[in-house]
Amino acid sequence: MQIQIQRAVLSSILFDPAQLDDIQAQLIPEDFSYKPHQDIFGAMLELKRLDLPIDEEFILKKSTPSHPIPQEEILNILSTSPIGDIQAYVDEIKDSATKRKLHTLAMKINEASNQTDNAAKEIIDYLQSELYKITNIQDNKSFRDSKEITTSTLKYIEEMKQKGNSILIGIDTGFHSLNEKTTGFGKGDLIIVAARPSMGKTTLVLNMAQKALDTGRGVAFFSLEMPAEQLMLRMLSAKTSIALQHLRVGNLQDEEWEQLSNASEIMANAPLFIDDSSLLTIHQLRSKLRKLKSQHPEIGLAIIDYLQLMSSANNKDRHQEVSEISRGLKMIARELEIPIIALSQLNRGLESRSDRRPMLSDLRESGSIEQDADIILFVYRDAVYKQKDEKEKEEAAKKEGREYKTAFIPKNEEEAEIIIGKQRNGPTGTIKLVFHKHCTRFVDIANNALEIIYEDTANTTQTEFIPPNTHIEMPTNI
Question: Do residues 350 and 236 share a domain?
Answer without folding.
Answer: yes
